[in-house]
Amino acid sequence: MERTIVFVPGLLCTGELYAPQIAALEASRRCLVADHRQQLSIGAIADDILASVPGRFDLVGLSMGGYIAFEMAARAPERIRRLVLMDTSARPDRPDQTALRPELIALAEVEGLGPVVDRLLPAFLAERRLGDRELVGIIRRMAADTGVEAFRRQQTAIMNRKDARPELAAITCPTLVMVGEHDRLTPPEIAREIAEGIGSAVLRTIPRAGHLATLEEPEVVNALLADFLID
């Protein structure tokens, strides 16, 4: 039976976030990109994805996709064969993060998502990649494809997410935690907390990458995924 991988994107990201990984894996796997743009809570998004994918599957989530993956693992652990958590956090929103989100929503509603991306780029990318026009263009295209209304729903879901740390020890499927060496949003110590909370997880740091490691260092991520999902 063909193995299925479900990729859950991050905030303002589409399936293009995982384009290098899908290209590398789709010959031997059924690769699906989850829709995380329609609901106002992480739980409702998790339920939608679980209802849309039959059977067991491998699950990959980056950033907001990781928040959703935690919830999916809590709600249907028997459905998840292997779990990959990338550049994410098990912690709830900090007060300063929660305070910023309505500001970004208001900015998007008045001026569009271009200025929002401008604000977020230094947190999304390693400093050395901020001048990479092709990479920045991908991020702007994903934001435009997401749209303002979906961005509002995503931010609402993120700011109201729960603390997933108490549930980490219940994750028993093989788990790989990856983090960019220069990730400012969810730095390596946050990834270490996740891996240690799960206990059996493998932790890998992606050299030179920031928060969007799948696009910044795709070859490294592809190799780690291929090795982890080999059987």
From TrEMBL:
Q: Coiled-coil regions in this chain?
A: none
Location of the AB hydrolase-1 domain: 5-223
- InterPro entries in the record: AB_hydrolase_1 (IPR000073), AB_hydrolase_fold (IPR029058), AB_hydrolase_sf (IPR050266)
This chain's protein is named Pimeloyl-ACP methyl ester carboxylesterase
What species is this protein from?
Tepidamorphus gemmatus
